[in-house]
Amino acid sequence: MAYFNNPYYPNYNYQQNYQQSNNGFVPIANEEAARSCPIQRGSSVTFRDENLPYIYIKTLGFGQLDSPVFEKYRLVKETSQNAQVQAIEDKSDALPIYVTKSEFEALKEDVEKLRKELGDE
Questions:
Q1: In what order do the strands lie in the sheet with 43-49?
Q2: Is residue 1, in this structure, part of any structural domain at all?
Q3: CA–CA separation, 51 vs 70, rounded Å?
Q4: What is the pTM of this model?
């Protein structure tokens, strides 16, 4: 590529790093460096922030008028216990909230008592 050893591209060393990367993640100093790093047309590069728990994915299409798409993901380490608790919380949020008949009857009695006290009946 024409970007190697070009003094006008301050992140040219990252270009060399991601071409030599074996694990699919390119280590990078920060988000701004990932955003400014040039990539080839028709490719996608995954950057791993060395200082923060983020992964950045930069993709560029084949078209001459295509502009890069930049995505940012936060890494969260989950233990099996945390994952189970989160799954239970997610399920409880999705369930509708119902009142049992006995709870409804107790509330109904309380409302009737309040009405009698206020003289609404």
A1: 25-28, 43-49, 54-60, 69-74
A2: no
A3: 19
A4: 0.51
